[in-house]
């Protein structure tokens, strides 16, 4: 497997003056003051926090000329820009601005598109179509947004904004021809030439999406292994690969993650930041449905067995690796959970064209059906106290989160919203659920790769879900139990062309 260690982890802490630098600044190439700025700006990159503190001056970024500080890189083709941003301090002018900007050049009058957050809370998509032309603006209905995304699709630009925890609101412009090769980056403008303002940018992501002609489950793009702090929403990249990493489990000892890549399982050491192949003997066609037992002694896998026409069959093997033991006689069977006492496995099985949830002894034997509703039932997982099994089902139209007793009784719907919600994972302390949410435009029975998705958190008993991560991902992002043992963090995979 070809892997690329995240450059963000290797860069020294640096304060960069206002002129362009040959050394990279995190994910960016250089920084510059744009226009006749009186007070030079700067950028400080913190590799531990993976954040950028940018200071900038400038009289304005408006009309036909701009003055601001710009931290940038050159890009071609389509891209998605994402960050969680805020000004530092009370500020001196309500019109001070920060955000993402895409420019045709570094000239002060260059055509551009930018996703702007203002000091007074105004959120807007701003753009200049011609050199020296006047800047135009589309204002958002929300104020005080702190999550901003700017996406290029040919000559169409889409800005999405949200207050952290809430869904995106989107505006767009078309026919904005900035050229194939553009300057892309973060900016700060103080709106006062005598003042320098500071802003903090976290969760900065420059994403190259899948090409429009890719073939699902045949073509893949690269992967980013991330760890999310649930309380703060801060995301940390721990590993990047040009290969399709999927579905990280957090090991019960908290020392490693286990993920799937090209049919094999790997253990990723969180101290050494290195992956190691897990020996699964003959089982080398594993999908991303793998689960560690509560006691950490065994791992269950879903292997596409050649002897069974490459249908998914469930096996178990020692956590350290070894020869798998077959559990399910029938396939396809897709593993999703262990019972806390280690006696049962729960999984989705396709039988006679119907996808339902089944339970089986870890010793094998007869499978026990738990659901029989029309539609797709998937993602079954026991609560740590063993009292419930949570799962997702589209039996009422959209894919929603449900729960039932371990014997399949008392099935009740937990979420009721416009999203398609998949793969509920319960925190080890039994207080929270995290799950993956697709938009209603995605078919309820599908969980495809390479989509704009949300990770959402909800109390175990139900309630109003809160977005904790805005992600380009989907299939493979969070298919399996992925909470840290202390219930404070979650591991997941996002995607970008490497």
* Residue share in β-strands: over 45%
Mean pLDDT: 94
The total domain count is 2
Question: CATH homologous superfamily of the largest domain?
Answer: TolB, C-terminal domain
* Unreliable residue stretches: 1-21
* Radius of gyration from CA coordinates: 24 Å
Instruction: Output the number of helix runs.
Output: 0
The largest sheet has its strands arranged as: 2-4-5-18-9-14-15-16
Helix content: under 10%
CATH class of the largest domain: Mainly Beta
* Category from helices, strands and their pairing: mainly beta
Q: How many beta-strand segments?
A: 41
Taken from the alpha-carbon principal axes, the silhouette is elongated
- According to CATH, the fold-level topology of the largest domain is Neuraminidase
Taking the sheet with the most strands, its summary is: 8 strands, antiparallel
First and last CA, distance: 14 Å
CATH architecture of the largest domain: 6 Propeller
Topology:
Layout (H helix, E strand, L loop, with lengths): L2 E2 L9 E3 L13 E5 L7 E5 L4 E6 L4 E2 L2 E2 L1 E9 L2 E10 L8 E7 L8 E7 L3 E7 L7 E8 L3 E7 L2 E7 L6 E5 L7 E9 L7 E11 L15 E7 L5 E7 L3 E6 L5 E6 L2 E6 L4 E4 L13 E2 L5 E8 L5 E8 L6 E2 L6 E6 L5 E8 L2 E8 L6 E2 L7 E6 L6 E5 L6 E5 L7 E2 L6 E7 L5 E7 L12 E9 L6 E8 L15 E7 L3
Antiparallel strand pairs: 1-20, 2-4, 3-8, 4-5, 5-18, 6-7, 8-17, 9-14, 9-18, 10-11, 10-17, 11-12, 12-13, 14-15, 15-16, 19-20, 19-41, 21-22, 22-23, 23-24, 25-26, 26-27, 27-28, 29-30, 30-31, 31-32, 33-34, 34-35, 35-36, 37-38, 38-39, 39-40
